[in-house]
Amino acid sequence: MGEKLIIKKKSLKGEDGYKTFSIRIKEETVEKLDQLAENTNRSRNELINILLDFGIEHSEVR
């Protein structure tokens, strides 16, 4: 009986590097997003993050 079970503390909500908030999106955009999710086998949330990251990286303020 020398081995111990080590149980690590679970991160508290919000400490995983993500934040949760709500936004309003046009129904047409949601339909397109859902179709893209279905075609790529990715979640809507994952796609939104990919698209936002791309948009931010490719934005220019003038």
**Contiguous helical run count:** 2
Weakly predicted, low-confidence segments:
none
As an assembly, this protein is single chain
**What class do helices, strands and sheet pairing give?**
mainly alpha
Kindly state the percentage of residues in helix: 40-55%
Describe this entry's structure for a reader.
By secondary structure, the protein is mainly alpha-helical. It is 45% helix and 0% strand. The protein has two helices and no strands. The longest helix has 14 residues, at 27-40. The radius of gyration is 19 Å and the shape is elongated.
Quick overview:
This protein is an all-alpha fold and 62 residues long. Helices cover 45% and strands 0% of the residues.
